[in-house]
Amino acid sequence: MKQIITILIVILSFGIKLYSQTNDWCITGQIIDTESNSPIPFAHVATVDYKKAVITDDNGFFKLCNIVGDTASIIIHHTSYIVKNQKILKTDPLNIQILLTIKDYEQKEITVTSNIGSNLASYIPGKQMITKNDILLTPGLLGSPDVVRTLQLLPGIQAVNDGSSGIYVRGGSPGQNYILLDDIELMNPSHIMGLYSVFNPLLTQNVELYKGNAPLHQSEKLASSIIVNTRNSTNPNSKWEGSVGNIATNLTYNTISKNNKWYFSCGMRRSYLELIKLASKPLFKKENNYFENNNYNFYDFNGKLRYSDKKNELTASWYLGQDHYLMQQNKTNINVEMQWGNKGAAFVWNHHISPKLSIKSTFNLTDYTTQLNLKVLNEILSFATQYKHYRLRSDVLYEHKKHQLRIGLSSTLFDVTPQKLSIATYSDSRNVTNSYSSNSSKLYISDYFKISDKWSSYFGFGIEHYLLQHPNSEKNVNIIEPLKDYSTWNWNSIYTLNYKVSNYNSIKGSYSYTAQAIHLASVASIPLPSDILMPATKKLPHENGHQFTIGYFSQLQPTNWQLGIEGYVKKIENQLLLKVNINNETIPNFDDNFYKGDGLAYGTELYIKNNIRKFHSSTSYTLGWSKQKFPLINNGQWFDAKYDRRHDLNILVTYLLNKRIDFGMVFLFATGNTATLPTGRY
Predict the structure, then answer these.
(1) How much is the average pLDDT of 476-498?
(2) How far is residue 678's CA from residue 652's CA, in Å, rounded to a whole number?
(3) CA-based angle 497:498:504, to the nearest 5?
(4) Cα 146 from Cα 140, distance rounded (Å)
(5) I need a labelling partner for 629 at 20 to 30 A (CA). Which of 35, 105, 152, 260 fits?
(6) What is the pTM of this model?
(7) Range scoring the smallest mean pLDDT among 68-82, 99-113, 256-270, 488-502
(8) Neighbour tally for 66: CB within 10 Å
C-alpha cells in the first residue's frame, strides 16, 4: 500500500509541476443540439485562424489544447447546423456546453441524422450507445417508452420474455449485468415484475452498453456494463416535462443557474392502478371485485445536483424506487404480499489539476431489499433478502502524447442477507437468518495507446483482495459447521486491438477476464423477491469468465448506412443454481443450498442501421448458443441454459412526420425459452 501511495504522489507531483511550467491551456466541452438536447458527433471545432482543430467524438465531446493567452475564439462547423462562433475565457468552467441550431433551408424542415451509435469511434469492440431520442422513438409496451426495451433491440441483447425489461447479454444471466445510473449501482432494474425498467426516459440523456469487455474502471460483472447517464441541460430557463401513460404518470424538472455553475434535475414516476379499483366499485359487488382485494403500485424518484467551475465538478445523485403487490382471497383465506426496491446515492468529485491530469473520486451506496409475505389460513411464511454495499473509488487520469493512462483504487464493503426466513404453522415455528459481510479492495491500471493513424490498443489489468469476514453468530442460526474467515486474491484484465482499414471501416478484437464477487441465483425468469444474492465464499468462489471478441464495423458512403458484425466466445466458471430441498434434508450451511457449475456461450451478431432524413431503421440479428454444466445435474453433461436463445431478430422502423408526430413499428422473432416438461405425476 505504501508503494501505491508513493506512485500516486509522484504522478500528482509531476502533474502539478507540469501545470506550473506551462501557460498553455485546453478548451474542453460538448456540442449539443438546441432542440433535442442530444450530443452532436463529428462536429468540427477550431480556432478562428484554423491552426488548431479537432472533431467531436460520438458523445459530442471535444478537447482543443495548446491555447495561449487568457481568451480564445473558436468556430464550430457541422453540415446540418448553423456555424457558430464563441469566445472562451481561461477562467470559464470546464466542460462547457455549446448549443448549435439546425439549419433552415427556405423554411423547409430538415431532419438531422446522427452517427452516435457508430462503433467506428470507440476503441472497445461491441460498445453501443443509445440516446434519449432513440428511447422516445422506440414503440413501447402500453405506449410508454422504456430504456431497457430499447436496449433489447440491439444485437446480443435478449429479453427474458416478451414484454419484460430483464435482459440476457451474450448468454449471461441477469445477475451478471453491471448497471449504473449516474454512478449508482442498481441490482434489479425493473418495475411490475419486469414490465417496466426503473430508468426515467425523460431524464435519460444516453446509455452506454459494453457487452462483456468494458474498460476496467467500468467493469464489475461478467456479462455487461450498462451505464445510464441523465441529462445535463444548458437551457437557462427552467423546464418542466411530463407524460401520462396507460398505467403511470411521469414528471421531470431541470434548471441551471445564471452563472452556469449550478444545475439541478429530478423526476418522479408513479403508477395509478388504484384508479381501476375506484372505477370498478360501481360495477361489481365487493366480494366479487378482484380489484377491490388486489393492488399493485410502484414509484421511482431520482435526480442530481451538480456544481462546476474551472477546476472542479461536484455531483450528488440519488435514486429511490419500490414496487408493492397485494393479493387477498377472502374465500380461501389466502393473502400474498410482495415488495422490493432500490435505494442509492452517489457523490462524485472530478478535479482537474492540469489540462492533462485529473482525479475523479466517487463514493456510492446501494440498498436493495425484497420481501415476501404469505398467509394461508393461520399459517404464515415470511421471506426477505437484503443487499447493501458502500464503495469508495478514486481514479487518476493522465494524458501524454499518444497515451491515456489511468490508475485507480477502490474499496467496497458488502453487507448481504440472502435469507431472513420466518415460518409459523400449527406444527412448527422457525426463524432463520443468514448474513454475510465482506470487503473487496482493488488496484487497477489501464492505458489507451494510439500506436499510429491506423492502429490503436487498450490494455487494463487489476488485482483484487477479497475478505469474507466471520459471520455474526447472532445473525446466523441453524449452523452446523463452524464458519471461518475467507480470504482470496483475484485479477481482472482486458486487451483490445483496433485496426482502422479506412476512415469508414475498422476491425477490432478483444480478450477480457473478469471475476465477480456477488452471485445471483434466480428461481424464476422474471425478477421476484425469491431471487437470492449471495457473496463469494470458500464453497462458492468468485464467478469468473473469459471472453474473446472480434468484429468488423463499417459506415457505407455516401449513404448513412452503418454495418457491424461480431463473433464472440465466452467461458464462465463457478456460476450458481439454486437447489430445491424437496426432501427436507439437513443442510450444514446456507452456501450448501446451491449447485456450482460452468457456462459456455458463443455466437455471431449482425447490426444494420440507417438514417435517411425522416426515415430511420435498424435491424439486429443474433445467432447464439448458451450452455451450462453442473456435476450433479444431467450426469455432468452440457445442457441448454434457460436463457439460451438460438435466434433473435429485431427490426425497428420509425418515420418522423413532423416535430410532433412520428410513427414506429417493431418486429420481433425469437426462439422460445428452454423448458423440460414432466413425464408424469404421482
Answers:
(1) 78
(2) 38
(3) 170
(4) 6
(5) 152
(6) 0.82
(7) 99-113
(8) 12
